[in-house]
Amino acid sequence: MNEFSVSDRKLLAAIQANSSLSQIELAEKSGMSRTSCWRRVRELERMGVIKNRVTLLDPKAAGLGLHVIVSVSVTSHTNEIRDAFEAHAQSLPDVMECFAVSGDWDYMLQVIAVDMDAYNSFLYDHILSHPSVRSASSSFALRRVKYSTVMPIPSVV
Questions:
Q1: Which of 33, 47, 139, 151, CA to CA, is 20 to 30 A from 97?
Q2: Which pTM value belongs to this model?
Q3: If you count DSSP H runs as helices and E runs as strands, how many of each does the chain have, helices first?
């Protein structure tokens, strides 16, 4: 496990809060010099700690008002079936997240759609029609209680 210094944790917190901060602003927030901050950001990217810097959209403002958790069961548990379904899930822009899970289902997908009609088409055309899928069950989000993309950064042990 990575151990992060206080400066690293400040730097990562600042980047997560606002990825458009300048190098000068990041250096100020992390308590580093601009050069040290730049080098540390590059090192954290090389290590895979920083994967991407993105702009988050508001789903409702973007016209995507329906959030669905889809539980999926596959036809068998071979590598071929698993790989086929995972590649398919990764190719679908409506799927925001896909998890292989333990329990009664094999996968949980977080899906976003414009409305129920769009979701219904997505479910039948892209999930249930896929040859690796045995069944699926949908749970519809009534309201979002919490949403965060900010990862908790472990302290130095």
A1: 47
A2: 0.84
A3: 5, 4
Question: Residue 31 above 60 pLDDT?
Answer: yes
**pLDDT tens-digit profile of 105-123?**
999 999 999 999 999 999 9
CA triplet 141, 94, 131: central angle to 5 degrees?
105
CA angle 19, 61, 91 (to 5 degrees): 70
Task: Show Cβ contacts of residue 3 under 8 Å, excluding neighbours closer than 6 positions.
Answer: 154, 156, 157
Question: In terms of DSSP H, where are the helices of the chain?
Answer: 6-17, 23-30, 34-46, 79-91, 116-122
- Kind and range of the H or E run holding 113: strand 107-113
Domains of the chain, each with CATH number or no CATH: 6-46 (1.10.10.10), 66-140 (3.30.70.920)
Q: What are phi and psi of 107, to 5 degrees?
A: -140, 150
